[in-house]
UniProtKB/TrEMBL annotation:
InterPro entries noted in UniProt: Cyt_P450 (IPR001128), Cyt_P450_CS (IPR017972), Cyt_P450_E_grp-I (IPR002401), Cyt_P450_sf (IPR036396), Cytochrome_P450_fung (IPR050364)
Entry protein name: Cytochrome P450
SUPFAM superfamilies for this protein: Cytochrome P450 (SSF48264)
Cofactor: heme
Gene3D superfamilies per UniProt: Cytochrome P450
Provenance organism: Melanomma pulvis-pyrius CBS 109.77
A GO molecular function held by the record: iron ion binding
Sequence positions that bind heme: 400
Length: 476
């Protein structure tokens, strides 16, 4: 029941057993939370107790080798890595990268415009979205980018992220819940794949860091990036090569497939809703006009486009079960005893499709978010957890530190797609909205759509804006 689409079984049980219940898998006790108030009580109010991670055999021990911020237990190493990650993901840092995110979004739309040839060539936008997210992360992490979807790093990096989705999951890997002595000796194929993935990450991303280190030693001036910061601080922060390779990998794994998945879900969903597209495009024409692309500053004046993004995120969280937390001490929650070592899973599927909060929750309806002008990063801090927009970024002390970057990337990509194209389904090629069944992530299965420029001047504006954005990026 939990090896395929575990969120659906957890939702069924939440309806039967309530918003807090436990299950046991092998040697591991799990508590499943399906209510915003309980999630806040445990993850936020009692964050000192509920911020640990389980040392999963495949994900934490094999792929991340006990390093990196995502899978590290709640300890001093995590604090150090989270602090370094935050330097690169804070509001101040994001303000600095805006020219990069701006350029990459425009570059993606321009590539889609060129390759779809005025709507005559059917397009699968997934690799374009993947490359856009990838370029944002490689620029922030290593100060490098790819120049087209055919660049070998695009396939290599997307394959690594996909393999991560296929081999690591909060509750689908039986090997994670076996006694250690069995894990060590049993020839699990997942163990072999986990080791291969670890090596792939170290070779690829650790290799980029080595390259940067050589250039720095040779006195070559390089753009600021996470890798450069880590190399400069390695003595002071006591970082070894593996620490740096895995922290960079956490950025590449955490920041690529996730934001790309939201752009992909948007592209898969929107062709079925021409009236929603029209309404968003009327708003864009009114506020932005047809002579320039929407920017970050425009978001507050484009409430309908903003609402479309929140609704895509509610309907298609890329990680329905997030990254589970672990209780580092025994805890009594009212009459319920949660023992130390319990894995606590945020069941966002039940929360996002909760009928008591959302009218007809299965329906894609951006209007439900029209009154909510918050950014998701701000919504996560609302005092009343029942008003939070959605739970895609997790909660508490381990909440996604990449939220600010992710929101900017997603806004620029989606608002510009709406600005540039009428997106429609191709007759005879219906879009399958099935979620890809990885062990953790959920992107759409492959699909093609038609992208027709909305008006004659689209190409010219894209050309001009790309040139402008490139010169700002290069100066910055
Ligand atoms: C749509 C985009 C994204 C989604 C849905 C997402 C989702 C998540 C979730 C659910 C968690 C676990 C939170 C928890 O434990 O409660 C997380 C953690 C994390 N995310 Fe994101 N993320 C996104 C984008 C990014 C980006 C752009 C980065 C940039 C590097 C990033 C880096 C990380 C890191 C490093 C962690 C580990 C935090 C820790 O354990 O302390 N994420 N993310």
């Amino acid at each position: 029941m939990l090896t395929k689409y575990p969120e659906l079984a957890l939702d069924r049980w939440a309806r039967k057993y309530g918003p807090l219940y436990s299950i046991r898998l092998g040697n591991q006790l799990f508590v499943i939370l399906s209510d915003p108030g309980i999630a806040k009580d445990l993850f936020v109010t009692n964050g000192a107790i509920f911020s640990d991670r389980k040392e999963m055999f495949v994900k934490s021990q094999t792929v991340f080798a006990g390093r990196g911020v995502t899978a590290t237990p709640y300890n001093d190493r995590w604090r150090k890595h989270r602090r370094i990650a935050t330097i690169w993901l804070s509001q101040k840092a994001v303000d600095r990268y805006t020219p990069i995110l701006d350029f990459e979004a425009t570059d993606m739309i321009k590539a889609l415009y060129a390759d779809s040839k005025n709507g005559t060539v059917n397009i699968n936008p997934q690799t374009y979205a993947g490359r856009c997210s990838l370029n944002n992360m490689t620029t922030i992490t290593f100060g490098r980018r790819t120049d087209s979807i055919h660049h070998p790093l695009v396939k290599q990096a997307l394959d690594l992220s996909r393999e991560f989705m296929n081999t690591t999951g909060p509750m689908s890997n039986l090997v994670d819940f076996m006694p250690e002595r069995v894990q060590k000796w049993f020839p699990w194929s997942m163990k072999t794949r986990g080791k291969k993935l670890h090596q792939g990450l170290v070779n690829t991303y650790g290799g980029f860091i080595k390259d940067i280190e050589h250039k720095m030693k040779a006195g070559i001036q390089l753009d600021d990036c996470l890798a450069k910061t880590m190399i400069e601080a390695r003595e002071q922060e006591d970082l070894d090569d593996l620490d740096m390779a895995i922290l960079a990998s956490a950025f590449m794994i955490g920041g690529v497939e996730t934001t790309a998945s939201i752009m992909q879900w948007f592209s898969a969903l929107i062709p079925a809703y021409p009236a929603i597209q029209r309404k968003a495009q009327e708003e864009l024409d009114r506020v932005v006009g047809r002579d320039r692309l929407p920017t970050i500053e425009d978001e507050k004046n484009l409430p309908y486009c903003h609402a479309i993004i929140k609704e895509v995120e509610r309907c298609h969280n890329p990680f329905w079960l997030g990254t589970p937390h672990v209780a580092s001490e025994d805890f009594e929650y009212g009459s319920i005893f949660i023992p130390k070592g319990t894995v606590v899973v945020l069941n966002t599927w039940s929360m996002h499709y909760d009928e008591s909060r959302w009218e007809r929750p299965m329906k894609f309806d951006p209007d439900r978010y029209l009154p909510d002008s918050t950014l998701s990063s701000a919504s996560a801090n609302l005092t009343d957890p029942y008003l939070r927009d959605h739970w895609m970024f997790g909660a508490g002390r381990r909440i996604c530190p990449g939220m600010l970057v992710a929101e900017c990337e997603i806004w620029l990509a989606i608002s510009r797609m709406l600005w540039a194209f009428d997106m429609s389904e191709i007759p005879g090629k219906p879009i399958d909205l099935k979620e890809y069944d990885g062990k953790s992530g959920r992107s759409p299965v492959p699909f093609v759509i038609q992208l027709k420029p909305r008006f004659e001047g689209v190409g010219k504006v894209l050309e001009r804006e790309r040139r402008g954005a490139e010169s700002v990026r290069l100066r910055g």
